[in-house]
Fold this protein.
Amino acid sequence: MLIPSDFTQKIINIIKKIPEGKVLTYGFIAKLAGNPRAARQVSWILHSSSKKYNLPWHRVISSMGKISLKSIEDCEYQKNLLEQEGIKFIDGFNLDLKEYLWKINSIEEM
DNA sequence: TTACTGACCTTTT
DNA sequence: AAAAAGGCCAGTA
């Protein structure tokens, strides 16, 4: 596909606008993009598009406020980036979602 | 080309 | 209450 699907663009659009010091969860992004159950694709789009579009992939975490990367190195790298933005980790790779989740009701508000 | 996998979340047994 | 399975799309082989 030359042109990404609609919600792929929305997802990219959303991620690009995440402010520093804030994070979003996969499910939340999927929901904003119009598909509450497409959380899985968010990760993939993120993975492939972060290189091409230079997206802040480190500001996207799992719904439990936890980093869920495969490689330990990437986890630590992401943790490091988030800490540089003022985000404090509770323990290990867990952070407080109530405090750092980007509050937004819909993409129309952007 | 078709088929399978992948940084997950939600709903149903 | 915990556990299992379904769902969604794009990228890679």
